[in-house]
Amino acid sequence: MKIYETAVRKPVTTALIFIGIVVFGLFSFTRLSVDLYPEIELNAVTIMTTYSGASATDIEQNVTKRLEMSLSTVSDLKRISSTSKDNISLITIEFEYGTDMDEAVNDIRTVLDMQRNFLPEDTENPVVLKFNSSMMPVAFMSARTSQNEQGLYKILEEKVANPINRINGVASVSISGAPQREIQVRVDPKKMEAYKLSIEQISGLLAMENRNMPAGNIDIGSETFSVRVDGEFKSSDQIGDIIVGSFMGRNIYIKDVATVKDTLKERATEVLTNGERSAMIVIQKQSGSNVVEIVDRINKELPAIKAALPADVQLEMVLDTSDFIKSSINSLTETVLLAGLFVMIVVLFFLGRWRATFIIILTIPVSLIAAFIYLMITGNTLNIISLSSLSIAIGMVVDDAIVVLENITSHIEKGSKPRDAAIYATNEVAVAVVASTLTIVAVFFPLTMVTGLAGIMFKQLGWIVTIIITVSTVAALTLTPMLSSRMLKKDPKRSKAFMFFYSPIERGLDSLDEWYAGLLRWAVSNRKFVLIASFALFLSSIMLLTKVGTDFFPTSDNAQISIKVELPVGTRVEQARVLNEYLYSQWKEKYPEIEVLQTSMGQSDGSNIFMSLNSSGSHLITYTARLSKAGERKRDIFEISDLIREELKVIPELYRFEVIPGGSNPGMGTGGSGLELDVLGYNMDDAAVVAEQVAEIMRKTPGLRDVKLSREDYMPQLRVEFDRAKLAMNGINLTSAANVVRNRINGIITTRFREDGEEYDIVVRNDISHRTSIEDINEILLYNNTGKSVRLSEVGTVNEDFAPPSIEHLDRERVIKVTGSIYKRALGDIAKEVTAEVDKMTLPANIAVELSGSYEEQQDSFADMLTLLLLVVMLTYIVMAAQFESFRDPFIIMFSLPFAFTGVFVALWLTGTSLSLIALIGAVMLVGIVVKNGIVLIDYINLNKERGMSVMRSVVSGGRSRLRPVLMTTITTILGMLPMAIGIGEGSEIWQPMGISIIGGLTLSTILTLVVIPTVYTSFHAGDIKRKRRAHAKLNS
Amino acid sequence: MKAVMIIYNQAHSTVVMNILDELSVRGFTKWTDVQGRGSKKGEPHYGSHAWPSKNMATLAVVEDGEAGALIDKLRIANAQAEEQGLRAFVWDADSVV
Questions:
Q1: Domain that holds residue B16
Q2: Closest B-chain CA to A884
Q3: Overall pTM > 0.90
């Protein structure tokens, strides 16, 4: 018994199975969490090796090079890059997307273990840092205070950080910008000299004094007591009263030679929110937990947290990454619902029957909801990709049901009982329905096998559409006949009101049929003209391709801009502060769109990994601007960013700046993309010259902004050079001399002050007034073992110098990266123009310039897409050839493909959209969608021919009777995509190109297919009858 | 005894069965998936791509008096849906084992 027969005979079972699917699907839906993208395991690992005291070149030669060499053997490695700076080597290894990162990290550890013995003595063990997207903060909060400046850190830690940390899913909460308490012992070197004391003595003494010690147990009578010596400082005031020695019979207290201050750390990140000094609270999530859920939980706790804070501390959410996710998902949900509504209207328009429309529409929820089951089982989230997949599928799921229902209706009209009609009519079209589904699957299933970054995005798309389409076919073959057998009647009565509206539509459709038949008759008899004209149209569309720019990913407006301003290296933080005040007042006035502007400047205090990875320094100011929602303002982030650039350009004090629309988070599709050129070569001077030339070319190229070189400027430094002979004569070795210098300037921490369970550093160093000039360094006293003192100026010199820049490698070669961000121009065009100019340059020996960055990825994935396209075309050909059992007919159908691409180019050109990866995916999908029309058409023409009609008559009458189904399935698909192409709501920019290209391609190809395919068919089959006659004649003779 | 051979579009399957039941015709033989075409204007029923519909055939041997009623009922059924196609042929059944 066939599946549809069973379905019709057992309506209860059928209904319940589908109800089961829907219930399980809805259950899955409630369990799905929301996210922006499918989970992406970032494919990079960083290896950090510290080698104190080594310069950038030393690090490069002794650490980086050695490690790079052995690390490049790790499997699945894509790219290895490194930065060698003073004291530190950072190697970043990128793997192919989809590599098992745990395994990769293990491989790396093995290699590092092996290399450990070959590294210089003093290098510390290399640290492997694995990144994943969960390291990105999920929320930033800012806290401001007017009175509690000193205690802010502690208040925030206790009242904000700790409660938030307890929330399920929060990995860490760190506070920066709130000054941390520190106890400073500021020594006066002159007094110290007079008493013959050194900083080391004081710090050593402090460590000895500040101690609690258990002294064992003692039995007294029948009881045991433990004995303790509690010497820890009870308050910071005690420190000043400690005796460090005696001079001429008098006690010398610390307060005699130093001032003790219980105060805040000297160098720390300063954070300002909307121009006011504040503290920033960065919240990171645990990997695998859901951003939206966590932020929701935090927001729920927030009122309680706020209530517990002192009245003057104001806490507010600065950046809530879940906002963008939520509004993107909401707008996509609207898109899907709107698409559903459009499809419903189209079906009703063509069928003009309520019941039939209901039966067809029912397949939409059933098959879409099935996708949720897949999402839950595979542990995926409801994200942009999965929702867009629903939107793509919605127009296609009704197609099968339409074909089945149409045939059932015509059987009923011929007089069959609905029950019999349902079974036998379904039987007649089942093969065709399955075949057309297979062509769609032939397109979407290969998407699940795409690798790389695109693979992550399209895997879900491929699976979801495949599953939805398969379920929709099953529903069309079971649910649709079952419902038809129950609900359809012969000649249902239509109400007068309905007929009033519908009869003009029916008349219009009838005359459209007639008109089309006439057109076909003309086209078939003017075959040459039609073919030449359409070929010319296709050729001219290829010309259009040069006008359509290419891009990697469409950019979207996520209401964030980050700005990095660099003053000349070595600028003091006070200067930065002045500049910041100026910039803030300017921006506040000019860009009312900016809701929150967070500024951070000064040295990073390294309290969290996220902060310490960003470069920091007193000359750097970084801004994160949160703008109002994309829909609520006229200027987008790209326009505003460009205005800001113009403004920064005229400030002479700036060394350089960078404005990144979309923020620095490496999210896909958000913000702008960039062009990167790598200048490779060992000779640093030659490379620097070439890089500067390349940068000049890029600066001149329209559409490029923020062109900069990756190699940093030489850092000014004071280098203390000791004369070893003189040191030796004084009985001092270099290390101890260097330590003395360090302890005077940087300070020495040997003990911590404990209060209320918290520890604070006690720092001993020279008073700030004795650390401001080279003279102060020269005056430092060095003591040897016998207590004899010597001034630094006697055994060494202080030279002003510049430290070499960091040295970067790419794939083990020295590199200078020249990068620029793109504004309002297609990446492909810019890349072409820049390469053309760069090719004209004469390069010094052993220097090479290569394109990389987004453009490289774009080229890679475009190549992937072309392979995919070929694969898909072949697969659909196979499916069709199998259905028609012919090589010729699928070939004829393939004639509709060029026009699909024509349509894509025209649509992209008209809307000014560039050809991106997303638009290309749309083009690939078109292959499956477009040939469906051809299948429906050719199948019926063949049928007419087999029934004995002449080729011409088969074509005309076949075309006429298939016009409505073709138009109906096409229009449902087009209207299903329409909300996506219009782009409502946030984040829609990402998928817009796909909607545009599918609508353009499908519209043009359908219109042309309806004329060209029958014409080509006639040309191919015109000889059929003659051939038959000839074969007949042969047989007879 | 009369042998009534009914050949009909498979979509009439239930119709024919109902008529037999109504007239209390107990014995019959039924073939499903049979092919054929009408002599005058009847469409071919081949179960092929061009002619997807199929026929069924039922052979019932009834008492002489019952044959008339059966033919009448079948005629009405055919008239209700002429496009589907239903034909019945009657001949004598000489002996029964």
A1: 2-92
A2: B49
A3: no
